[in-house]
Structures are given as C-alpha cells and as structure tokens.
Design the sequence.
C-alpha cells in the first residue's frame, strides 16, 4: 500500500464543453484590426466561468477565418452525438455572447446553438481538425 497521501477526487460536476480560442500567428493579434483581443478572451473566460473550460491555443491554421473559436463537446455531449464546431470571424461581442450562451447551455450535443452562429461555422481541413483533437 502506498504511503502517499490520497488526492481528493473531485465531485461529479455538470458536463463542461471546452472553448478553444486561437491566439496564434494571426488571431489575437493586430493582423485582425479593430478587436480588443485580450478583452475578448477575458469576456469569454468570465462569461463561461464554471460552465466551460476556456483555453487559449496556438495557431489553429485557419488564419483566413480569424478570430477562430472551436467549441468542443463535453464527454456527455460527445456521447450524445456532438462534435467540435469551428467558428470563424468571431470579431464582435454579439458573437462572443452567443458562444457563451450556447456553451453555458451545454454546447455541442446537449444544446442547440443560437441560429446566428450558423453564419460563423466553417469546416477546416481534416489535417487541421486532427491537430486540435490530437
């Protein structure tokens, strides 16, 4: 038997989707003008606190769609058929709020996205998608 102290096991919580926010070579930089990129990330983190995991990631290789956000389902959402949803040109607070609303409701597989987000959805290449999932 190990003499190491046992770490507390966290209590089961509500399923949490993951919101990946590209902050690579183009997204999150002055190459996308007119956007306060730090404030955008802060608003997403604040609005999704306790509801989703928000992470800033390196370049997602979809620069023509900057700023890119990927909403990934929770394990429960994936079991329900949810798949990652890639959103491009997310450069205004209204789109950010729609992402917050959707992810707070459960995200892919558990809640329908606000209809307006259909305008932001794009499909990156399989190679690019594999890089995020891998």
Sequence:
């Amino acid at each position: 038997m190990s003499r190491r102290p046992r770490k507390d096991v966290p209590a089961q919580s509500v399923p949490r989707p993951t919101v990946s926010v590209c902050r690579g070579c183009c997204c999150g930089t002055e190459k996308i003008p007119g956007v306060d990129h730090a404030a955008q990330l802060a608003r997403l983190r604040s609005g999704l606190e306790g509801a989703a995991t928000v992470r800033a990631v390196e370049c997602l290789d979809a620069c023509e769609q900057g700023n890119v956000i990927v909403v990934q389902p929770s394990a429960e959402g994936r079991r329900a058929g949810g798949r990652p949803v890639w959103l491009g040109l997310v450069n205004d607070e209204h789109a950010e709020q729609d992402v917050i609303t959707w992810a707070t409701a459960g995200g892919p597989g558990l809640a329908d996205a606000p209809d307006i987000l259909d305008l932001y959805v794009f499909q990156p290449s399989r190679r690019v998608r594999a890089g995020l999932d891998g």
In short: Residues 57 and 113 are 22 Å apart (CA to CA). The first strand starts at residue 18 and ends at 22. Residues 18-131 form one domain.
